[in-house]
Amino acid sequence: MTAHHPTTGRRAGRWAAVLVWVLKGLLALTFLAAAAAKLSSQPMMVAEFGKIGLGQGFRYVTGATELTGSVLLLWPRTAFFGALVLLGVCSGAFLARIWLLHGDLIHVFLLGALLLLAAWLTRPSWLRRAG
User: Fold this and answer.
1) Statement: residue 8 has pLDDT above 70
2) What is the pLDDT of residues 15-46, one digit of tens each?
3) Which is nearest to 30 in space by CA: 120, 97, 101, 111?
4) Which long-range contacts (CB under 8 A, 24 or more apart) does 94-98 make?
5) Which residues, in sequence order, are CB contacts of 113 under 8 Å at separation 6+?
6) What is the CA radius of gyration of the chain?
7) pTM, rounded to two decimals
8) Helix, strand, coil shares of the chain as percentages rounded to 5?
């Protein structure tokens, strides 16, 4: 049974669903922009991946992974897996920032936390039953 708002009579779940879609949309846009920067060989991305030392092919793999994760995040049946893919990208960015780039970590933590929230909110039913 779904709870109804006491004054409007609408289901409380409607706003929750809208907020989940907004969260997924903003995350997807963020990672699509990052993927576009990598795949279009923006000078900042070329330089950053040059410092990492794994070659420019790794930049393309990362951009393609971000693109794939963003698309998966927007499709309801695969949103959980998209969030996991993008969490993997964030994990790699975290390691690169700590060991090689020595950049700020705030955005990595913020995106990681939002992706964890998205993964939790979109987890498949078989994981909901397991908990």
Assistant:
1) no
2) 889 999 999 999 999 999 999 999 999 999 99
3) 111
4) 96/52
5) none
6) 17
7) 0.83
8) 80, 0, 20
